[in-house]
């Protein structure tokens, strides 16, 4: 029992069990509405691909013990910039995509630079990022810009057929490929080990010769890149740019990371857990839409309740074999 | 001699916040004729300054509670949601009343709103002090779920009420004075007296400096933290009542949206360290006034309102860069040398306390 409680994979396991239980519950409750199909799971990825990518970025940051509040704003800004460039400036999509990704990277890099070299808390720096990018959205336009560019529509409607008649959207496939890449980087590269080392104890990591500065700045750059990519997927999903797109997405992303079992103090967690966290949040949305009569506000309340449950679970696990948690940074 | 006085003045921790506030107010003068004029019209106080004070009331209140929470080494992200819950709960009660102008009904509604704030604060405090959850995370729960709860209270609608005399007074005028300004004066005085005329402030700072060490010397660290979160919840609820009274409505979606960020910003501009252990209530009030004046200034000088957020972001970055010792060391490297003793002055007490605790 104590061996089980000490296992770092336990939170991921709990999330997986929760997901299966919720899915089974939904399947038995909505038997007549065809809930039990592979397409329902595929739809989870189609509808939440952008959240998955954003949450992967948040996982990197949280693993180092930091936090990134600018996710939602960068996603919103990316939709806005893409829509403006494609729709009103008539730039080719193939130029716009690398450009907005570079903008996201630059934003993340600047925030990481300020956080590390000027020793300001990540919370505050990314908060400023949140204001800045949301403000820049409004500078581009106060109105929403809908996109009817042919390339974008083609990309948005493209379906990847899977055996058994199910399909995935391009966004969902991108997010899954990205997930695999992130898992590889975190577990099989030096960079990944450095991320975990810094989250475990930055001081020790520094003394061990880990290039802390480079790694931390890189992590925020990755988060900026993920936010921009998530913004592109969101643009494909919703085919418009709006200054109010993805307000509060950072909270969903952080919630998914925590529900996925990553410690907010850093140093422990898996991107696969993050994927399960995103799926659980997505499943709450699906079940509430199947239920039909429930107010969509229950999504927030239930997400909050799950967040609470998993944080208390982290405390139970964390209090064994671990020193007192590090103060929030 | 005067040179020395000037130097001492610029080193005072409130010097820069006050200077910024004064500068912002002066910027307004060419754009608004009679900016500093305050006159009585129809028995009410009128003027741009009065308006700024009235509109800053919610931020001042929320920032006041936030200061004490941050002083204990915590943070409260849920204030916006608590504000919405309190407004929703009291407006719901009033809207169900047959006579919306009855004083007793409004008093009960106010009590319900404040009670909601108390419960939310106690919940946050229990998670942080009782369960030992990181403050950012603990209050994130209520931040996410709280707005949902507020929406459920109002069934997703905007509740409008029609109570001009008793409830409308909270955000309006009372005997010719803006009631909300009186309210913040009372709350600020109360907080200052409680923390600076009793040992409470010292206890809060010691808990924020090192909770474990404070517990070992016999301070009830958990109770102090719990009280700070409850006070913060109450302040947020009060801000919610002011907000609802201003609008005669409860809008769960937009009430207090992002006020937690404004409040944290106000606290930090006022010189309180986010790491806890030191707090300045006066600085917080000035910080909150700066934010409100900035918004007002952006509006009056005719900057398009959509650049409001960019302005604010640039200001956040600017303020924090100036407060960062690492940034000052890098940028003002040459100029830093003559004032190096000032830095040395600040450092020894901190190291002394840690070494004392170590023994």
UniProtKB/TrEMBL annotation, chain A:
Membrane topology: Multi-pass membrane protein
Transmembrane segments: 53-86, 93-114, 162-186, 217-239, 251-284, 296-313
Domain of life where this protein originates: Bacteria
CDD domains (UniProt xref): TM_PBP1_transp_AraH_like
InterPro entries recorded: ABC_transp_permease
Keywords linked to the UniProt accession: Cell membrane, Membrane, Transmembrane, Transmembrane helix
Localization per record: Cell membrane
Chief site of localization: membrane
UniProt GO cellular component terms: plasma membrane
GO molecular function: transmembrane transporter activity
PANTHER family: ABC TRANSPORTER PERMEASE PROTEIN YPHD-RELATED-RELATED (PTHR32196), INNER MEMBRANE ABC TRANSPORTER PERMEASE PROTEIN YJFF (PTHR32196:SF63)
Name of the protein in its database record: Sugar ABC transporter permease YjfF
Protein species of origin: Actinocrinis puniceicyclus
UniProtKB/TrEMBL annotation, chain B:
GO molecular function, one term: transmembrane transporter activity
GO cellular component, one term: plasma membrane
One Pfam family per UniProt: BPD_transp_2
Predominant subcellular localization, coarse grouping: membrane
Bilayer-crossing regions: 14-38, 50-71, 77-94, 106-126, 173-194, 226-243, 255-272, 279-303, 309-327
Membrane topology of the entry: Multi-pass membrane protein
InterPro entries hit by this protein: ABC_transp_permease (IPR001851)
Cellular location(s): Cell membrane
Keyword annotations of the record: Cell membrane, Membrane, Transmembrane, Transmembrane helix
CDD domains per the UniProt record, alphabetical: TM_PBP1_transp_AraH_like
PANTHER family from the UniProt entry: ABC TRANSPORTER PERMEASE PROTEIN YPHD-RELATED-RELATED, GALACTOFURANOSE TRANSPORTER PERMEASE PROTEIN YTFT
Protein name as annotated: ABC transporter permease
Organism: Actinocrinis puniceicyclus
